[in-house]
Design goal:
12 helices; alpha/beta; 2 domains; single chain; four-stranded parallel sheet
C-alpha cells in the first residue's frame, strides 16, 4: 500500500469516525433534551379527593420548582397525571397508559390502597419503579421488587395507638371501621397486634362507605365494656363517627387513624373532635415542633410553600406526595440516569432522607423505611392539633 492510498484510507476512516461521533453526540443530546417523565394516578375527585387533591397540587408545585432550578441531570421534569376518582379499575387503566403509552420513567401515585394494589402487578410486570402514597401494609409486605411507599402503615398506626392506650392504663378497646381497602386492612392489623399490647377487643363494628349515621353501631359499643374506641377508617366516615360518638353520650377516649390526619377532619367533626387522638406525621404540628427536631426545617418549608401557593391548609397527604417526588428525584440523581433498574436500586438504597413523614432508611426488606419514631401522637385541643407528651413507644 503506497503513501497516497494510506492517506486516502486515513481520511476516509477519519470522516467515518467523525460522522459516527456526530450521530452519537446528536443522539446523546436528544436523550438529554428528553424530559424525565414522572407519571401519577391520583384520586383528585370522588370520595378520596381529600387525599388526591393536595397530592396533585404538591406534585405540580414542586415539579415547577425543580424545573425553574434547572431540572434533574440537566433535563426538565414532565408530570403526567390522571384522576382515577378513587376507582381501582380506572387506576389500573391509567397505570397501563402511563407505562405503555406515556413511557414514564417512574410512577408516584396511588392515593388509596385499592387504587395502588390495582396498579402493583402492572408496575412489577413492566419493571417500572412505583412509589405509592397509600397506607396499608400490604403494599410493601411482602416486599415487591419495584414497589415502594411513603406513608406510615396501618400496622404502625395500630401499634402507636395501642401504646398510647397502654400508657393510659386501659386494656379494653372497641373497634369500629369502614368497608374500604384501608379500613379493612387496618382493622385486621389492629386485631393482630392487640395482644402484643395487652389489649382486649371487646366490640368490633363496621359501617358502609355510603352510611351517614353510625349511632346503631356506637350504641352497641356503649353497652360494651370498652374503655376506649378506635375508628379504623378515612374519608368522611370518621367525622360522622366522631359526631355520632358524642350524640349517643359516649365519654370514652376516641382514637382515629392517620387516614384523617388533616385540618379538614377537625372542621367536619366540629366541637365533637375535642380530645380525639391519632398518630400522624410531624407536618401537622410543624409550628410547635422543638427547634432541634430534624424534621422541622423540612415540614416548615413545605407547609409555607403549600399554604402560600394554594391558600388552604396543609395535610399529611400532600406531604406524602412531596416525599414520593423527592425520593424519586434523589434516586435519579444517585443513579445519574433514568435507567429504571438503577433508579429502583437507588430507591432501595435510600438512607437518611429527612422528609415530611419522617427519616427514611430503605432496605431490601423494607420499601417504606420508616419506624415508630416517625409517628407523633396528636390530640385535638381547642380545635387545633397538639402534641401528646410521652404517648407510648416513640
Amino acid at each position: 500500500m503506497n503513501q497516497t492510498r494510506i492517506s486516502r484510507f486515513a481520511r476516509k476512516a477519519c470522516t467515518t469516525a467523525l460522522a459516527a461521533a456526530a450521530v452519537f453526540a446528536g443522539s446523546a443530546l436528544a436523550q438529554q433534551a428528553e424530559p424525565i417523565r414522572i407519571g401519577a394516578f391520583l384520586s383528585v375527585t370522588g370520595p378520596a379527593a381529600f387525599l388526591g387533591d393536595p397530592e396533585l397540587k404538591t406534585l405540580e408545585l414542586y415539579v415547577d420548582r425543580i424545573n425553574a432550578e434547572g431540572g434533574v441531570l440537566g433535563r426538565k421534569v414532565q408530570l403526567i397525571a390522571y384522576d382515577d376518582s378513587g376507582d381501582a379499575e380506572k387506576a389500573r387503566t391509567f397505570a397501563k397508559r402511563l407505562i405503555e403509552q406515556d413511557k414514564v420513567d417512574v410512577i408516584v401515585g396511588g392515593s388509596t390502597t385499592g387504587t395502588t394494589m390495582a396498579a402493583v402487578p402492572l408496575a412489577e410486570q413492566a419493571a417500572t419503579p412505583f412509589v405509592s402514597l397509600a397506607g396499608a401494609v400490604v403494599i410493601v409486605e411482602p416486599v415487591k421488587k419495584w414497589v415502594f411507599k411513603t406513608p406510615h402503615t396501618d400496622r404502625m398506626a395500630c401499634e402507636k395507638i395501642f401504646g398510647d392506650v397502654q400508657s393510659r392504663k386501659m386494656t379494653k378497646v372497641a373497634l369500629i371501621s369502614g368497608s374500604g381497602g384501608f379500613d379493612k386492612s387496618m382493622r385486621a392489623e389492629c386485631l393482630t397486634v392487640a395482644k402484643k399490647y395487652g389489649i382486649e377487643i371487646v366490640a368490633d363494628e363496621t359501617y358502609g362507605a355510603a352510611d351517614t349515621d353510625m349511632t346503631a353501631q356506637l350504641t352497641k359499643i356503649k353497652a360494651s365494656t370498652a374503655q376506649a374506641v378506635l375508628n379504623a377508617g378515612f374519608g368522611q366516615g370518621p367525622a360522622i363517627v366522631t359526631r355520632n360518638f358524642r350524640q349517643v353520650g359516649l365519654a370514652l377516649p376516641l382514637y382515629q387513624s392517620h387516614g384523617v390526619a388533616s385540618r379538614e377532619y377537625v372542621k367536619l367533626s366540629g366541637a365533637a373532635a375535642e380530645g380525639v387522638r391519632l398518630p400522624a406525621a410531624a407536618l401537622l404540628v410543624s409550628d410547635i415542633l422543638p427547634a432541634n427536631d430534624p424534621q422541622k426545617p423540612v415540614v416548615v418549608a413545605y407547609r409555607k410553600a403549600y399554604e402560600d401557593k394554594f391558600k388552604s391548609d396543609v395535610s399529611t397527604f400532600g406531604g406524602h406526595a412531596y416525599d414520593g417526588l423527592m425520593l424519586v428525584v434523589n434516586a435519579i440523581k444517585a443513579a445519574k440516569s433514568t435507567d429504571k433498574a438503577k433508579v429502583r436500586d437507588a430507591l432501595e438504597a435510600t438512607k437518611g432522607y429527612v422528609g415530611t413523614g419522617g427519616v427514611v432508611n430503605m432496605a431490601a426488606g423494607d420499601h417504606m423505611g420508616l419506624d415508630q419514631s416517625a409517628f407523633r401522637m396528636l390530640e385535638v385541643k381547642d380545635g387545633a392539633w397538639t402534641l401528646v407528651k410521652q404517648a407510648g413507644p416513640q
